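Cont'd.
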Amino acid sequence: MTIIGIIHGTSTNSREVSESEQAISSTYRAVTLPAEEHYEIVKNAVVEALRLAVTRVPSDVEAALKAARDREESDLARNVLDTILQNIKIGKQQSRPICQDTGLIGYYILLGRNFPLNFDLRRCLIEATREATQRIPLRPNAVHPFTNRNSGDNTGEHIPHIYLRLVDGDTLSILVVPKGGGSENMTRFAMLTPAKGIRGIKEFVLETIARAAGKPCPPNIVGVGVGGTADEAMLLAKTAVLLPVGYRNPDPQIAEIEEELLSLANQLGIGPGGLGGSTTLLDLHIKFAHRHPASLPVAVSYQCWAARQHGVIISSGYHVEYREHILL
Amino acid sequence: MTEYHFTTPIREEDVRKLRIGDRVFVTGTVVTARDQAHRRALQLLAEGKPLPVDLQGGVIYHCGPVVRRMDDRWEVVAAGPTTSARMESLEYDFIAKTGVRIVVGKGGMGAKTAEAAQKFGAVYCEFIGGVGVLAANAIKEVERVEWLDLGIPEALWVLRVERFGPLIVCIDSTGRNYHQELAESINKRFQEIIQKL
């Protein structure tokens, strides 16, 4: 036990040591299985996560839609929400995609440093995408931007996109995100001058929401990424839309801005389906990175009410667990 | 907010009864058409060639469905609306030249489409964005598919439907455009909110 502690350079705290020990022993156990078997386990899990993602919305989103239905005052807005809730119910019952735009497929991966990865994960995800496209089925959405040719199987140049983050621990977490085009089209990005400050950020976000109006299939979840470089701000915004409804930024100052923007956005009157009402957003999440002194990048990303995502967690022993959310 | 049930082909006088906020259910034939299909249709008509499907009194649907091939037929799995704004530059001519009576999509359309609706007797209806499986349940059969070379989403899917809806009238033949009216009030509220920040 002591030796393990030294190898990992960790404290001799007995609980930590035993976790490391467990990680190592399960690593040995795991690699005794053939790599092809691991490949199949992960591929099947990803296909299943894709099926779960496109045929249902996370329970927090459904609960928020139901609450909105009870809150809305106009018949039209209530009607729209009833139609949406009915659609969600049928999707779940019939195990069919709730929306015909089953998105461009993305995988957000958290790879634990002690996870025994002994096969080609990239190829596995591409094959899972092809298989899911056939079996669920998904709409083939990967189009060559210059020839306009549809690849027919949701794969192509850089697609599905794969984001990899290296983390502690011994699990492999994959968040499957089929992203609809209607909401993605409303994405906006700006390099504000830092002098614009918090007020400038708020104005840009509200202007984006007012401009998008009914186009991104409201009620929406909006993600705001502030700081970092352009790509970092965008990635923060894109992962912020995936946070559960009701989740608040741990920084109280930022949480307050989230709540203020959410309340102001819902006063715009865009409403469910963009046909008027008080539920334009189900939630708004902010993530930030430290910025360059000269830059204030702000990115706004959109999620439609069909907020499709599903997580799968593979343990070091290759046991599979499904989750509605994986915090990125 | 009146509820109407129509069977295709739809007569001009029936469509002219519709007003903003009315709910419509359609039985008969609905044909999907996205921007590439609009473009090809207009090009064929400009060359004096016929379209593979008669749209006089018909319903077109801005939609790229999820379909599954079952032995000798197609099954529609999900078929909600796509963003109509992409067809705005083409819809006036499309309504004028095909005689289509109901255009179904999401997110609203602009002044040119509203002008065509008034002039030729048509309406634009919103089918709530994202309700793909609800729409698919109203589709009883794929009668046929044309222009499959454009890809599955862009092809012309000729669908037999029953009680297809609810479709909410957002542009009526009196020239009213609900999305346009709403956009003005959204913009007004936005300006007020910004002032108070």
